Amino acid sequence: MSRKINIGIVQQSVNMPLAENMDKLRRNIEECAKKGAELVVLQELHNTLYFCQTEDTEKFGLAESIPGPSTDFYSAVAKKNGIVLVTSLFERRAAGVYHNTAVVFDKDGSIAGKYRKMHIPDDPAYYEKFYFTPGDIGFEPIDTSVGRLGVMVCWDQWYPEGARLMAMKGAEILIYPTAIGWESTDTAEEKERQRNAWETVQKGHAVANGIYVVAVNRVGYEADPSGVTGGITFWGNSFVAGPQGEIVYRASNEKEENAIVNIDIERSEDVRRIWPFFRDRRIDEYGNIDKRFLV
To answer: How far is residue 119 from each of residues 67, 129, 136, 281, measured CA to CA in Å?
Structure first.
């Protein structure tokens, strides 16, 4: 028995004002829907340039309430095209409290659920701790008309704990809207090490949990407004990995792409029968996993 769905991947550069960029996103979503997508996934913070390259209090003005103008916009797009849509928004929860939040819309345009990014980086050119409060609604899958989605965001993709908890709660697909790239001083060798590590760790989540993983990344160059660094070249390479870590689809590292990827969710059942990792977990010996370090 199979349960196949078509996933739309929108790998996009951001190089225009907000309204124009959102219209571009709408057209790309519609293109995926016309090609048969039932679920469309966008990249992290897709509405605007990646503003976290600098610490600038003016950038808090980009944040919106949820529900708000952007959720109204994407709700209408999801409903018009009859798709489940995974978005990534800058949420204003209250004065001084902001989140990096994924919002999922169902085919009728309703908000099926949201996820607030849990792991917040603070690296050169990725000053996210300045902007985002860590998520506080846990690793909770979101039920939609195409299945139960384990949606997390970017930096979360490096942590096996979040993937495991989503899978243990019945997530059928792990989804990571992403914004990751190379700094201008990285060597070619270092660039390849970083990209390979990024893909490998997520393939590990697929294998360890017997589940599909969908990662959708930005692409293209975005300058550092402060001029302190050489900016970021987002490396694209959006991909879908199957339950044995096999690459079902991989985008390029430099081009915008809309792609349709067909997967069979029931494949997880087949893989978990031959690799019963959940059966063999030593849950009686994992008590220290909630500690910061053990030496």
So the answer is: 23, 9, 11, 25
Peptide bond connecting 67 to the previous residue in cis, omega within 30 degrees of 0: yes
Comparing CA positions, the residue from 19, 277, 41, 72 lying closest to residue 177 is 41
Catalytic hit among 24, 59, 114, 117: 117
Cα(36)–Cα(250) distance, integer angstroms: 19
Q: What is the separation of C-alpha 265 from the centre of its chain, rounded to a whole number of angstroms?
A: 19
Catalytic status, residue 32: no
Q: At what angle do helices 69-81 and 18-34 cross, to 10 degrees?
A: 20
Q: What are phi and psi of 97, to 5 degrees?
A: -125, 110
Read off the pTM. 0.97
C-beta atoms surrounding 100 within 10 Å: 29
Average pLDDT, the chain: 97
192 part of the active site: no
Please report, for residues 70, 125, 156, 235, the alpha-carbon distance to residue 12 in angstroms, rounded to integers and kept in the order given. Answer: 18, 20, 21, 11
Q: Tell me whether residue 117 is one of the annotated catalytic residues.
A: yes
Model confidence over 98-121: pLDDT tens digits?
999 999 999 999 999 999 999 999
Q: Sorting pLDDT into bands at 50, 70 and 90, what band is 184?
A: confident
Instruction: Supply the pLDDT for residue 2.
Output: 82
